[in-house]
Amino acid sequence: MAKDDVEGEGLDAPILLAEWEMPLRREASLIERLSEVDQAIVRQHGHEMRLATGEPLFRQGERHDGIVVIEDGQIRSFYVAPSGREITLAYWSKGHFVGGPDVFGGGTHMWAATAMRPSRLMFLPGAGLRQLARQVPDLAIGIIDALVFKARCYSAFAQMLGTRSVAQRLVQLLQHLAQTYGVKDERGILIAAAFTHADLAALIGATRQWVTVQLGRMQQEGILTNRRGLMVILKPEALAAQLEHAGER
């Protein structure tokens, strides 16, 4: 992600590959949803963390311990293949947590996570978290709700990778970004967040060069403009029509 993100209405929504119609608005944060008394209990158990842009939260294969609630900032979770190639699973923002599925600790991380901008986090260690969930039932319910939400997100991600061509995935991603981060502009729909071609490529399982070529083609056809990482969808209907023949590319 570029550093100069434009503030939009949907910045708390996750960024991931999914059908553009899929609602991905988050539920209330694990901590925000609690009473003041329960929040104090949870924070007493946790430890505040701060990460700079680019600083890793955890690495793939490291020992798993507890969960981390994002209080401000943005965390990218991604899988590193044996070849070294990375594929982005999601960008998570304020209110979401990272560190599942082994929320109580144990095993190793199946993927990595890194701060994409300065982030303030609340680390809830696995040791004692099970007992804390018994003590604060609303926390336990929140963890279940969040895991269901993540399962829905990752199921959509897997379905897209398995059933859509890479060209279709790019169109679906652009539609999803327009729905989630779209701001009405005199020219069309401004995607109010800055992405590099490498960012988009990692989200759809393609190369940066391929994404550059495809966006260049769409720009020549007048479907969108893409300057300095800021994209405007000029013709949403024409973008939607790309799905009908994107599988041929």
Note down, in words, how this protein is organized:
With 249 residues, this protein is α+β, with helices and mostly antiparallel strands. The protein folds into two domains: 36-162, Jelly Rolls (Sandwich), CATH 2.60.120.10; 166-246, Arc Repressor Mutant, subunit A (Orthogonal Bundle), CATH 1.10.10.10. 37% of the residues lie in helices and 24% in strands. The protein is built from seven helices and ten strands. Helix 2 (129-135) crosses helix 3, helix 4 packs antiparallel against helix 7 (236-246) and helix 5 (197-204) crosses helix 6 (208-220). The longest helix is centred in the middle third of the chain and has 27 residues, at 137-163. The protein starts with 35 loop residues before the first helix and ends with a helix. Mean pLDDT is 86; it is low at 1-11.
What's the CATH C level of the largest domain?
Mainly Beta
Helix content: 25-40%
How would you sum up the global shape? Answer: elongated
Q: Ranges with pLDDT <50 over ≥5 residues?
A: 1-11
Biggest sheet layout: 6 strands, antiparallel
Spell out the CATH superfamily of the largest domain: Jelly Rolls
CATH topology category name of the largest domain: Jelly Rolls
* Number of strand elements: 10
Topology as a string of helices (H) and strands (E): HEEEEEEHHHEEHHEEH
Mean pLDDT: 86
C-alpha termini separation: 27 Å
What is the radius of gyration? 19 Å
Q: Based on helices, strands and strand pairing, what is the structural class?
A: alpha+beta
Number of helices: 7
Instruction: Give me the CATH architecture of the largest domain, please.
Output: Sandwich
Strand content: 15-25%
Number of spatially distinct domains: 2
